[in-house]
Amino acid sequence: MAEPVPYREAFPIGTSVCIADRRMLDDFRASWKYHHKLNEEQLEYADRVTTVADVGFYHGGDPVYSLTDVPGQWLEPCLRAAQSGT
């Protein structure tokens, strides 16, 4: 994934996204030291395809996503563009 542009989301509202796999989420949870850390419940949604319901921005420009039928707040490194047909 390219370096994010502050205050510009990679996944606009309505975009289909796939949550990263469990290994990546575990690694992210262990290494991320800033805002909106993943909680244990979110790890169970690894590999789930869903839709972006809302996008906000953390101070400094990081997009923070709310997903349809998935709890919690999500950061861009934990999401991927969903493949067509998924």
Question: Can you describe what's shown?
Answer:
It is built from 2 helices and 5 strands, in the order βααββββ. It is α+β, with helices and mostly antiparallel strands. A hairpin with a 2-residue loop joins strand 3 (63-67) and strand 4. The chain is globular and about 30 Å long. 15% of the residues are buried. The model has no long low-confidence stretch (mean pLDDT 90).
Beta fraction of the residues?
25-35%
The strand count comes to 5
Structural class: alpha+beta
The run of helices and strands is EHHEEEE
Largest beta sheet: strand ordering: 4-3-2-1-5
Helix count from the secondary structure assignment: 2
Rounded to an integer, what's the Rg over CA atoms? Answer: 12 Å
DSSP helix fraction: 10-25%
The main sheet comes to: 5 strands, antiparallel
Instruction: Report the mean per-residue pLDDT as an integer.
Output: 90
Distance between the termini: 20 Å
Low-confidence stretches: none
- Taken from the alpha-carbon principal axes, the silhouette is globular
